[in-house]
Amino acid sequence: MAYTLSPTPQAPIGTEHCVCKVELSVCGHNLLDRDVTSKSDPFCVLFLETSGKWQEIDRTETAVNNLNPVFAKKFIVDYHFEEVQKLKFALFDQDKSSRQLYEHDFLGEFSCTLGTIVSSKKITRTLVLGNGKPAGKGTITIAAQEISDNREITLSMAGRKLDKKDFFGKSDPYLEFHKEGPDGKWMLVHRTEVIKNTLDPVWKPFTVPLVSLCDGDIDKPVKIACYDYDNDGGHDFIGEFQTTVAKMCEVEDSIALEFQCINPKKQKKKRNYKNSGIIVLMSCKIARNYSFLDYIFGGCQLMFTVGIDFTASNGNPRDHSSLHYINPMGTNEYLDAIWAVGQIIQDYDSDKMFPALGFGAQLPPDWKVSHEFAINFNPTNPFCSGVEGIVQAYTSCLPHIRFYGPTNFAPIISHVARFASQASQQPAAAQYFILLIITDGVISDMDETRHAIVQASKLPMSIIIVGVGNADFAAMEFLDGDNSALRSYTGEEAMRDIVQFVPFREFRNVPKETLAKAVLAELPQQVVQYFKQHNLQPINSERS
Fold this sequence. Notes:
544 residues; 27 strands; flat
């Protein structure tokens, strides 16, 4: 593929449905020496594959006379879990001031997906030349870090002996929190609830992002103002004070912090003025609101399993009209779905060994119907090596089974749930299971399937259902609880929505990447939701 130079530096890669921004740090080791009288002067260029071409995104500074550069310039990339984002890092020895890369000596390159870097957090790989051979002993190291401050602060506040502002009663106090904006003016960040008719209010604890309260700078001033609420909107000012998050963090469990609530006008008028009451900080806690990438960087593995429908309604795989018929291009809708989802997920599983199961077929030698069998015919080791291994096992098993029925989902869902249940006993966010079911039609065991999904909703597990063919998929859409919570036949409600259904027919005439985006867009949110509900931190919660 050809290199294309962007006319101007691009914005960070991608903007639609961006999960977050990732910072990539690059350094080189033992680079080729292309200069005669000195060492190479390397710089690194980042490319993104777009429509089959490498498009330049950004480049680092030049490290003068250095074969082991550590580049200060970072690459900022918008990270999309549901996309295959192919990157290329190319190193050049700067010989001229030209922006044209052909004017500089090529030192080697390395290509991979952003998912590969993110799932490993830091990688070191061999640089290769255009002919695919190693660029001497040259290597490149790429480290990824999420750019975000996802800390949250939780405050518990009270007041004591506040000024009385109402003629027929006491005050109705509430607090406002402000931070200083770029223009030096105070910006409202948070407003508490109103406590009626009291001079000694106790407000409910509240949580706000630390970025919202102080831009993440714990030494930045925070202004807290107290008002008496009036129904006509003319709220009476009681007093205010300034502090910092660093100061508020000094509060201890048994000893509260007290701040004098000052009304500057009263302070000027009255010589013996002390304050307009005391604001009491009873508790201040800062915690990290973990993101999807926090869990991935922390070492969480995404465990991928495929379930394939081999019921008779699919048609004889030798017949051109069968949904399992493999066309001259070597594909069908089942294979397209496996590739679309699998090529994303495989970056997040270190050993890339995936169980592939079938259901609804008669198996040799006794030709009994099975709703949970290994498509490699090895029940003790149903794992396939990468997506390619799944595809190979699928194509190999087709001639050796008889398509039958009925279409039962519950056995395969329960199979994966058993492993997810074991993972749920771990003290940290180590594993999350994803089951891809590809099917052609109506579910025969709907009650059992609903019950299995409701039980699975309690586990670190999500289910993706891709409907192939032109059948009525109303039942599948019912399982995808986007509109209302799914219930078991016992009446038990799913703890969370873990099913995503898409009909393949809607993606037949669009780029294959579109299917992956549709089925995987909700997955990061589902992963975070489960770990938060169970108060599980990343394995390595202190990211470097």
